Structures are given as structure tokens and as C-alpha cells.
Amino acid sequence: MAVEMVRFKNIGLRGVTVADTKISYIDGENGVLIYRGYRIEELAERSTFMETAFLLLNGRLPDKSQLERFEERVLQARELPGFILESMEKFPRRTDPMDVLESCVPMLAMADPELSDDSREANVRKAIRLIARIPATIAAWNRIRNGQKPLPPESALSHAANFLWQLSGQKPTEEIARDLDICLVLHADHTFNASTFACREVVSTNAHMYAGVAAGVGALSGSLHGGANERVMKMLLQVESELASVDDVGPWVKNTIDSGRKIMGMGHAVYKTFDPRAKILKEMSRRLTREAGHPEWYEYLVKIEEEGIKEFSARGKPGINTNVDFYSGSVYSAMGIPVDIMTPIFAISRISGWCAHIIEEKFAEAQEKPALYRPEAEYVGNYCGAVGCAYESMDARG
User: Fold this and answer.
1) What range defines the domain where residue 357 resides?
2) What CATH number does the domain containing 99 carry?
3) Domain total of the chain
4) CA distances (Å), 139 to each of 11, 151, 371, in order?
5) Which of 325, 340, 357, 395 is flagged as catalytic?
6) Which of 44, 117, 279, 327 has the fewest CB atoms within 10 Å around its CB?
7) H or E, element range at 65
8) Are 44 and 280 in contact (CB under 8 A)?
9) Would the pTM of this model clear 0.90, i.e. be above it?
10) What are phi and psi of 141, to 5 degrees?
11) 23-70 pLDDT, tens digit each
């Protein structure tokens, strides 16, 4: 007779250190995020996404000539292979942009002339191609699904500005392009989150970079990882339509928590205080929503934040604050970006961090590091002793 073994264990590897990294660091108690030793606040204020991507990939800030060469190589790689555009033309128009991206990353691998070269130098060049082509892929699909032709890249535009141009056919102002560039800096890396770990786990088997990135995109597509900014924006629009004014937010927050529903964009697995990225995005949201003619979006968000923090604290849950997703949805919407493109923008930024982690995984300095990730699981299923359960014929089964 089979006996079912039941045990309850902590699952999900949360809090378990699985590897060393030099790429980024989080101090969740004090709200600190660092890329390669540099605080995120300083990078957002003084750096650019191209410079930050160079930093993540190479471990140092570039000098002027190094940055110019890096930007030129990204610019030269912007053009998508024709067969990928032809393939996208055959996709069902209702296909989610994240599913399109997950489908196209392996096709980008087929177009890479250095796919079989696994040297560090070749992997950096692959990373540059991915940084250039992920935004091109997303922009092309947005055009195709709306019955429009994909636009060629514009060499005179920055990385962020070129994406907005290829996405909508309108060249953004310098201010909007800079705002999006800052958003890309803020999302570029975040240590061993689910998608980054997926990338590293896959390439630990000696799979190529594109296989790892495809895994990262797949992990990001899940509702518990990517997509929170989309859900915040949907929540915001619902609140705006249902409530008479901002004054009604307090009761709405209490009712939402009482009913067991989540307030999207509040709480974080790591931060026990304010997410440093959220502070930057909050100010950006205040300014951009006003300029876009929707100042009420910011007003509702601020009130939800205030009432949420107060309500959670009153229930014995202090430290639940807004995260990076809470204000980013309103920022992107104010830029005219469709809601279902918000998670793909996460990928446009995080591709730099993913590739940096893939390279670090492939060329880890610690010689004692295992060849691949192989965690163990506790079996809690049926157990009939060392010989196993007796196999019964079909007729004998109850």
C-alpha cells in the first residue's frame, strides 16, 4: 500500500545564495542599488543607458573613445534580418508582444555569425547585437500588428529615441528621449531576480547566450515577475473610472486589502524600505503626466501610495512601500507607449544585465563553482519502500 509522504519546506530558493557576482548589489534594508560599485541615483542622473550597458558588460566606465565605439557598434547592429520581419508578418495579430519577443530571440541566434564562438570577446559582440535588436524587434511587431510597415532605424537618434521613433513613427523630443533613457538605466540590472537566474541557469549548461536570453524573456513574461507596471496602469485607470475623486482612495485601499486583493506596485521581495528607483520615477511621473494632460494619474498614485503605506503599517506590516513598477506605468503611458509594450521595455533595458550575467556565468573566476546549477528537491510523493510500489494490471486497479 502506498503511503504519501508530506513535508512542508521553504521553496523557491528565496534567501539562498547560489553564486558570487560583481555586477550589482542590493541593500534591501537601506534602499540601496549598486551597479558595478556605482549607486543607481548617480547613474540615473549623470550616465546614459549606453554608458551603463558598457559598465555592466565590461566592469568599468568607458572613456570617451570607448563609449563612441560602443555606441557605433550598437548603431550598426540595429537592422533586423529580413527573414525575421517576414516571419513576424505571418504571426497572428493578437499575439502578445512578449510571446513575439520570446519567439524572435532564437531567430536572432540563427542570424548571428558568431553563434558557435563562445569566447568572451564573441559573447560581448553578441550582447551588443542583442542590445541593438531587442528594441527593433518590439517596435517592428507593434507596427506590424497595427497594419503598418516597420520603420528603418534612424542613425542620428539615440538608443531610446530611435526605439520611440520605430515604435510610433514620431520622433520624440530630447526631453522624452532622455526620460526613457533614464528608465532604461533604472531597469538595467537587479541581481539574481527570476529572469536573470533563468539566464544564468541555462548557460551554466554551456548553452549559447541566445538560449539564456530566451529563458530570461520567458521568465519575465510571467505575471509574478514582469508585467507589474502594466497591471499598475490598469489598476490606475480602473480607480480613475470608478472613484469620484482622489478623496475616495482611502476607503478603496482599505476595501482592496480587506478583500485580499493586491495593490499593484506595492511591496518587494528584497526591499524593506523605499525602492531607490521608485523615488526617481515618482518625480518623472509628476512632471510627465502633467505635460501629457493627465495630472490626475499622478494624484491618484500618490494618494494610493500614502494610504497603502498607512494601512499596511496599521495592520502590522510596516515596510511595504512602492516599488519600481508603481510609477513607471504612468511614465510610459504619458510617453504614449501602449500598455502591453511596458514589459517588453523592461526587456529592452534588462538585456544589458542579462548578457552581463551570462558572460559572468560563462567565465566565472571561482574555480570551485559547479559546472552547472543542479539543485535538489525533497520527494514528498508516494513511497512503498526501497523496491517501489507494486505495479497493478489495468483490470486490478480500482
Assistant:
1) 1-398
2) 1.10.580.10
3) 1
4) 38, 8, 37
5) 325
6) 117
7) helix 64-76
8) yes
9) yes
10) -65, -40
11) 999 998 899 999 999 999 999 999 999 999 999 999 999 999 999 999
